[in-house]
Amino acid sequence: MKKEYLLIMALITWFAITGCTTVQTPEPEITFLNINIENNTGYECFYLYLCHVTAASWGNNILGSNILPNGQSVINGITYILNRENRYNFRMIDSNGNIYTKWNVLLTENEIIIFTFDDIDLL
Description:
The chain is mostly beta strands. The protein has one helix spanning 2-18, and strands spanning 30-40, 45-52, 73-81, 87-94, 99-106, 111-116. It has 1 helix and 6 strands. The chain has a 3-stranded mixed beta sheet, with no helix packed on it. A hairpin with a 4-residue loop joins strand 4 and strand 5 (99-106).
């Protein structure tokens, strides 16, 4: 019993001295993805939002004051953390107020996200 106690105390002392009681976690690597978002809804797009699937809100309109005409596309860069799954939700609102949504899209570099009239949200 005394040998086991001494061994345990020796290990605790060694961990305390060498700093092995703390685990260093590497900083997550941040990278940048270019994606192409295409409007094939038949209408001009006034608003375009994207957010990570874990986000609580849509965030800002990535078009700003620009309009995305039907048949046109916009390239957007997304900054994301590599150790986090890069799945995003997309929302487009056209000139008539119709809302189009794509949920849980797994993104890769140069991904093309195409909105069509079939993506319209039905109430």
